[in-house]
Design brief:
This protein is 42% helix and 15% strand. By secondary structure, it is α+β, with helices and mostly antiparallel strands. It is globular and about 40 Å long.
Length: 131
């Protein structure tokens, strides 16, 4: 499935190996119920100071819907990246519904996805220009 529109705000956009790891992380965290989905729920979690990684879809139009989220993340020191399509995020969440924004909560040390989480954080630190 080809994404036709990519928002001009969508940097850093994850690709290849980091994208595959990120989607795997989302899948694992959804099965453990450690995610926040959608703009209002994620915004609330970020404002409350919960830690995690925010994945935004790069093909959302109009961009005003989520334009405030990256600045909030930077203020709170939360990592965020863009994924090419909202359909990819939806598929990773095992729903047919496209998802514009999802936040994976920071796992406890004994969690099943903590090693994947650390790998994704390391990858984001490598590609992110502002973090």
């Amino acid at each position: 499935k080809v994404s036709l529109y990519v928002s001009p705000l969508a940097t850093p956009l994850v690709t290849d190996k980091l994208l595959a790891r990120s989607l795997k992380l989302i899948k694992k965290s959804v099965s453990e119920k450690k995610t926040r989905r959608g703009v209002p729920e994620c915004t609330k979690a970020i404002r409350k100071g919960q830690q995690g990684i925010v994945f935004l879809a790069g093909d959302i139009f109009p961009m005003d819907v989520f334009a405030h989220v990256p600045t909030l993340c930077e203020e709170k020191g939360i990592y965020y990246v863009y994924v090419k399509s909202r359909h990819d995020l939806g598929a990773a969440c095992q729903t047919r519904r496209p998802i514009s924004l999802i936040m994976v909560m920071e796992p406890p040390d004994d969690s099943a996805y903590s090693s994947t989480y650390q790998q994704v954080v390391a990858g984001i630190k490598a590609v992110h220009p502002y973090m």
